[in-house]
Amino acid sequence: MRVKKLISTLSLFFFLLLACDTENNQDTTPPGILTIDSIVPTNGGGIINYSLPSDSDILFVRAEYTNTLGNDVYRVSSSYNQSIEIDGLNQDTPVEVTLYVIDESQNVSDPVVVDFVPLPSFIYLVQESISISPELGGVKMEWENVAQKTVYVHVHIVNDSDEEIRILSSDSEFEEVFVRGLPSEEITFFTKVEDFDGNITELEEKAIITPLFEEEIDKSTWTLMSQLSVNGDAWEGETIAFWDNIVDTAETNADNSYFIIWRDANGGTLNWPLDIVIDLNKNARIHRFKVWQRAYWYGGPIGAPYYYQAENMRSFDLYASEDTVNWTLLGQFDIGDPSDENGNISQDFIDEAANGHDFDLDGVSDKFRYLKFSITSNYGSDTYVHGSEITLYGLDNVD
Q: Which of the four pLDDT bands, split at 50, 70 and 90, describes residue 303?
């Protein structure tokens, strides 16, 4: 017992000695300071270029400043970089920036203080570049964002005494957005642009425009070109249910309004693409459309819709023709898979499926009589493909 106790005591002694020695040898020396090489003002900020001190254990550089809105903010840049970006500014007065070097032991260098005047914020460049042009059922908005930073474009739509506000977000260098659902009446459009930090331009009148007349293409004249189409009439499904103006619902199987493409009724395999060819029996021009998935889930969780499940259609190509021989590709489209890593789907995507998936063409199509809906994938089944409804928007009965 004495031997064991002695060994235990000695072990504790050496442990404390080692810990004390480690503590005594901990690095407490701050790194050297930065050498500022140049400062390049940018639209709404600036790039500070520097040389690091010679310390071998530098972790990062930290820049602290107060932005235009009075908020204290900071930016960091790793030891692999030789510059740091300051942004979120909207001012024509100098901004003071304090820079520190931090090492791996969290030692902080003495500060280096610099100041510079940023160029006008990129939100003004975006605002200036905004253009608005009439489209069927709305307008097309375009703008340029050379900074490729997130902007929020507030669109005020004023029709007589009524005002509607829509907020469009993008970080693309060149953006094109369609604003839909507007009447074919004279409308005044105002815009202002906001950045991620809350800087915002003044509201400015951009255009007075009358959107072009848009209508839903009437489906009562449509017929199936069965000789050019896959067989979608399995079980309770019918191909012509794809345009019967009845959208399948999740709550009941009473409507059963969808097509069912079954491999056994189509040569024993789902031979992609699966074409459904429709004769409109008239000419039309379109610029957008909606599609709906099958909703009712046989044998599934009670009350849950079948959206985004294995047998539903997912991606497809859309073609138009005047003679069923020469086809023009109107676009390639994908509903997408919104499920997370655990297979969960948020309510926003469930609502989107219930309301119909909206798709825009790049422009307004030429007039056509025949439409080919060419399904290129589903959500995983090798046995069935389902779809509930399609609706087209544009100009009906075109001469």
A: confident
